[in-house]
Amino acid sequence: MQHGEIGTGTGMKRFSRRLFFGSMLGAGLGVLAACGGGTTTTAPTKAAVGGGVTPGSAPTAAIAPATVPPNAKVVTFWIPWGQPERQKWVDEWGTKFHEKYPDQALKMEFVGFANMRQRWIAAQQSGQMPELLCASFTEMGAASVAGATERADDVVKDLGGSQFFLEAPLATWQYQGAYYGIPLYVFPRMMYYRKDLFAAKGLKPPTDWESWYAGAKALTGDDRFGSALAPADHSPEVIDYLMRGQGSSIFDKAGKVLLDTPEGEAAVDMFARLIKDTGPQGMPNYTEDDQVKFFLAKDVGTIVTWPSILQWTAQQAPQRVKDLGTLVPPGKSQAPQPVTTNIGFALGKGAKNLEGAKKYLSFIMQDEPNLAFLHSIVGVFPVTKTVADSPKFVDNPILSQYPDVVKTSLEASNKGIEGGYVYGFNPTNTLALNTNPGFPQMMQAIGLENVPIKQAIADQVKRMNAAISQGRR
């Protein structure tokens, strides 16, 4: 039986790769939604604002990939994006990659965020891993722990390491002293607020929990609401924000669950009060798509969501562009470290053309192709220093409408980390965040069934600890 070590501190414990592998399979794919990896950035159709097609479920059509030139060494690239804009970027820059390296050719294969885990597990078992995969750092971390991917230390070094990448987005991809992939883009989960609604009530943007709750409560009434939240698929991010704002987090450095501490109980209580007192009836069941549709259709003071809201607002409610502000959700006793989602590349274990894949990564991470990707669908932010500092990033028809919002979002992107991973990737955190029932059911029990907060937390902590224990057997 193969074993590894869990955590980064003195509390490290051994775990079974085989059992961790089985636990990930048994838990399903909920971790992708919980950590943002499954959230798409496709703009909602007009029907989404009034009902029908929602932002994340808007249909997309894949484009036909370019034909692989004869006698070229193939770099097979599993992509997670179903949007034609993203696939067009892969195809066009794949062609330019071949022009620069005539002996190399990129072969794009659409897998999708939701299907990535089944695919890499099956490919690893059959010894047919692709040269490149792209997904969330948590998904690629799980693949690394399972032995499905190669180390990427030489790729990071060749690109320039910390001189090339922003510190926080790069550090996320390091586990037990090695890089298991590299970042492509990040996006922060921010609080967006309607400046016009705040001004009408004589309110200022919140600076702490008290002003956050009081402001949202004051904005609620007469078919207006203070909050749009998504507890049905994005509870961990908000709860971790609320815990970070008290100097804590969902897990400690060794991976111990801290949800049942006073800070955890205070965070869940604050989240539950916002849902119950400042949102519509039924908000405990709201998903990301639901809250965005609701925010665009109604007069809602705040929403905690991804920067894709910038594109959706510009397209669906352009009259509100001037009134949209943003900030990192305020803390109770300190400013929290921003919550971000980090998407990037990993190298398939034992793939035939890893040298070609490394050439492609060095090529595609340069400024011109990187900017082209970031602009293909706006709402994602750079991970390299030159692009983050470049005026070309904000020189975009949509981003240029929100100069202050983009500035604040860039700052958050540069120093954030995923909800539940404040100390970096830890495989048992992934297991604990992925229980079923899990965080959404905990919040639904509190909001819809009136289960006491302490009891709901105790039930969830029990499930989380059981998942961790199973992975350590």
Short description:
By secondary structure, the protein is α+β, with helices and mostly antiparallel strands.
Q: How would you sum up this structure, described in words?
A:
By secondary structure, the chain is of the alpha+beta class. It has 2 domains: 13-41 and 59-187 and 341-415, 3-Layer(aba) Sandwich (D-Maltodextrin-Binding Protein, domain 2); 189-338 and 430-472, Periplasmic binding protein-like II (D-Maltodextrin-Binding Protein, domain 2, 3-Layer(aba) Sandwich). Helix content is 45%, strand content 15%. It has 22 helices and 13 strands. The protein has helices at residues 17-27, 30-35, 46-50, 84-100, 116-126, 137-145, 153-159, 167-171, 195-200, 209-218, 235-244, 262-278, 288-297, 308-316, 354-364, 367-376, 385-389, 391-394, 403-415, 427-433, 439-449, 453-472, and strands spanning 3-6, 13-16, 73-79, 104-110, 132-136, 149-150, 174-175, 178-179, 182-194, 224-228, 299-305, 324-327, 339-348. The strands form 3 sheets. Strands 3, 4, 5, 6, 9, 10, 11, 12 and 13 form a 9-stranded mixed β-sheet that branches. Helix 1 packs across helix 22, helix 20 (427-433) packs across helix 22 (453-472) and helix 21 packs antiparallel against helix 22 (453-472).
